[in-house]
UniProtKB/TrEMBL annotation:
Active-site residue list: 38 (nucleophile), 149 (proton acceptor)
Motif (GXGXXG): 9-14
Ranges where the PNPLA domain occurs: 5-162
DGA/G, short sequence motif: residues: 149-151
Residues of the signal peptide: none
Coiled-coil region: none
Gene3D superfamilies: Cytosolic phospholipase A2 catalytic domain
Chain ranges for the short sequence motif GXSXG as given in the UniProt record: 36-40
UniProt KW Lipid metabolism keyword: yes
Keywords tagged on the record: Hydrolase, Lipid degradation, Lipid metabolism
The protein's name: Patatin-like phospholipase family protein
InterPro entries for the chain: Acyl_Trfase/lysoPLipase (IPR016035), NTE (IPR050301), PNPLA_dom (IPR002641)
Amino acid sequence: MKVGLVLSGGGARGIAHLGVIKALEEAEINIDIISGSSAGAIIGAMYTYGYQVERILEIVRSIKTLKLLQPALSWTGILKMGVIRKFLELHLKDDFKHLKKPLYIAATNVNTGKTEYFNKGPLLSAICASSCIPVLFDPVLHNEKLYIDGGILNNLPVEPLEGQCDIIIGSHCNPIDHDFDAKNAKLVMERALMLAITCNAYSRRSACDYFIEPKGLETYKVMDLTNLDAIYKIGYEQAKEKIKKIKTKLKE
């Protein structure tokens, strides 16, 4: 059976996807095709490129947040996406053709206001476009058009996999906590964006045959890279329980 995996965005919480993938591998469930938004696009690209889970985790551990968060000094965003691109250039070749498995990347076209999916051509600008949080980062130019974070309109891009897979597994790493403290306007703005993104992901969960949303990720900040091992462990351990049901289905 052909298995598709959909990876949501969620910033640093996206490391939970690596735990999910590791649990799938240990259960001998082969992932044939991946679709992802934002952090899910980054994890999906590195995995389909051929990196092992442990190596991806090691690479992400090496990131120094402050080096990535450099001012853009422009009216469209306050941080530079180019620094993230340089990080990607160290580990990936810039074309989808170098991937060992099919990958779809979702990004939001600023001009049309629609989600677009990329699976060929330039890879790095597609990843950056999908990961470009609006206001925080400058919009990204890809194929001569401007794009922002794919999660804005579609944080669980299941659509490219429909009709291509016998089973679709959704991995959502961006759950909402229910004890938010509105301390200031900045936090309220972040909260509003998070609610909107999570809502559009939940609207697509029924399109997945299995939906994995590790509990306990709510307390981790999306831009905080200091708790990667804990986030990975949450994704891995909770995915193992869900995968027991998936294996039963695959054996039928």
